[in-house]
Amino acid sequence: MEKYQQSSGIRNWAEGDRPREKMLLKGKSSLSNAELLAILIGSGTRRMSIPALMKFKGIGEAKAISIAAALELGRRRRSAEVEAKPKITGSRDVFEIMSEYLTDLNHEEFWIMLLNRANKVIRKMQISAGGFAGTVADPKKIFSLALESNASAMVLCHNHPSGNIVPSSADKQLTRKLVEAGKNLDLPVLDHVIFGEENYYSFADHALL
What we know:
Elements: H1 19-26, H2 33-41, H3 50-53, H4 61-83, H5 91-102, E1 109-115, E2 121-129, H6 139-148, E3 153-159, H7 169-184, E4 189-195, E5 200-202
Parallel strand pairs: 3-4
Antiparallel strand pairs: 1-2, 1-3, 4-5
């Protein structure tokens, strides 16, 4: 039985399997980690250890360490992104996630939580910061940022430095405006949560959306 001898050179790969050609034809997301590494170091090897990397021409210890560090950073980023996307199932989740940003402040801030289709948080963004009496939340800015982030839904958040979590007439008016805009853009506003010192008020829980 003949032995199969695998070549590690990119030029010896089948054309459809060559990483550079594949990236041009199908885009970078179609490439595996090994294929991306192959483009980076000019070889089709699947080995990623520092000693193995140093066997390639032009790659010394410093460059091999840099490549290995870059790969590790990528791995950690992917892991962090998975861990940093909690799912929102109710107002309590919003309160627990955003408390670190919106409690113990002596001024008012307005934030949005942007969610994907699974209601997992993809971004937390501050829209504005103001004085003790209030802050401005620009609907155009809010939806522009949400659309740029490819969000599927959002939650509005702001704090009342006084500790009084009852929504003002201005809070209700702004919420209605944003809810209607969200319906028109197919980007629903799921809740508006007002933060006090240790408690919160949810528009969704009070059927005000």
